[in-house]
Amino acid sequence: MQTTGSKLVLQFLAFFHIFIAQNYVAANLNPSPIGVHRRFEYKYSFKPPYLAQKDGTVPFFEYGGNAIASSESVRVAPSLRSQKGAIWTKTQTNFDWWEVEIVFRVTGRGRIGADGLAFWYTTEKGDYNGPVFGSSDRWNGLAIIFDSFDNDNKHNNPYISAVLNDGTKQYDHANDGTTQLLSGCLRDFRNKPFPTRARIEYYNNVLTVLIHNGMTNNNEDYEMCLRADNVLLPKHGYFGVSAATGGLADDHDVFHFLTTSLHAVGQMPQDAQKVDNQEKLTQEYKEYQEKLEKQKQEYKKEHPDEAHKDEEEWEEFYESENQRELRQIWQGQSQIFEHLRELSRKVDEIIGRQENTLSLVSRGLAVNAGAAVPSAPVAGVPQQQFPAGATITRPDVDLLIANQNMLLSSIREIRQLVGDINVRTDSIQTNQRNAPTAQIQSTGYDVQTLIAEMRDGMNQVKQGISHVGQRLGASPQGAAQVAPCPTGNCVGVTLFLSVTVVQLLLVFIYNIFKNRSEAQAKKFY
Ligand SMILES: [Ca+2]
Ligand SMILES: [Ca+2]
């Protein structure tokens, strides 16, 4: 029994705890803290339609830098490089506690955007093109920073942070302010189907930031981003929104800036009177709207063309959500188309170059082939090599011409030589024809027969001598037998031999002389 009782107590405690927790969350997410009077502060608010008047001014606000206000939104910084802009309330707040709801969009074609958007509550209005998301550094008050770009490369952006400053600190851009922030949360607020919303509440020194991620159109889908106690902000301040782009760029559009002052029960100043005033003002506003509409209609009737034109102009200037989406799609597609066209142009260029190279190569080969054949017989001329893609230069042409000229002169010389040889052959032939064939033949014949005769003669002489020698050798026995030579008529051996030699010499000399004279005679033909 004891255990069952304690179980029940535990269960009750658990349920009670859950109930308390739920209530706590509800209280935190509830736009109006329990027991708080809320009042819409139109002098610190803007919203469509007629956000900006026709002259471009936003009632009760001042904007500058690259900010542009239209009837539907304030483009605090457009999606161009290095843009800065801001919008500030004209007057300081005259209430202690407040809640500001900002409905905004940060959109860009890039996967990463820059730099971000900031909400300000400061004692002084900031710059319109300052260093901290478009506003001034060393601010005195609160900044809620929607930081798109990850400067410290810790992969923790887009990040939402609350940074307090007493007018002395310089914002730590390099670390995305992480060294200075009061609190923060990681939320991707870029490129959402619906506008993102932030509800910044400052009540009894408690700062709460709720974020609507823009995934739905439900007004109540807020999530807690941060909550900080004991936050002491300056008593009075200016509200502002600023934004900046860098190398990357997003459109930073604010649609609603709605300020509500929060008052504890019984502290609402001049409640009844205010309510009366509000009713009166609402009535006046309605009357004014009706009057304006009436006047518009009248104007249209009076100037149908101009009115039409005017409407068209405004139509051109603004666009619906669908139109914008279509425009973005169209822009993306035209960019793709542009890239494709660029690619095809480059491909064409490459094909052109290739064809050019091919024709050059083939021409080079042809020139090579033409030059190689005739240059072969001309020694020492190297064949021209044309590498692929090379062009034929002037020196190459000159070299070719020189080669050909050399070739021509060589051929001319050869022809001359051949002609000479022809002439000589002709003259020899004529000479042979004119000369008496017998004589020519006789020359050779004569010498040969003469030599033969001389050889015979010499042989006979030798035989005679040897015969004489034999006889002389046999003389001791046969001297008596040989008839003694008659003294007067006998010739001596020595005399006989020397006469013979002289005779032979004379014949030889005569022959040489005869040959020479014949050869000289031939030259004259
Ligand atoms: Ca940053
Ligand atoms: Ca970061």
Q: What does this entry show, briefly?
A:
This protein has 525 residues and is an alpha+beta fold.
Residues in helix, %:
40-55%
Tally of DSSP β-strands: 15
Please give the CATH class of the domain at 28-269. Mainly Beta
CATH architecture of the domain at 28-269: Sandwich
Please provide the ordered H/E string of secondary-structure elements: HEEEEEEEEEEEEEEEHHHHHHH
Return Rg in Å: 64 Å
Write the CATH fold name of the domain at 28-269: Jelly Rolls
Helix vs. strand class: alpha+beta
Mean pLDDT: 81
Percent of residues in β-strands: 15-25%
Sheet bearing the most strands, described? Answer: 8 strands, antiparallel
What characteristic shape results from the CA principal axes?
Answer: rod-shaped
Question: Termini separation (Å)?
Answer: 168 Å
Low-pLDDT residue intervals, each spanning 5 or more residues: 1-6, 12-28, 373-389, 437-444, 476-484
What compounds are bound to the protein? calcium ion
Helical segment count: 8
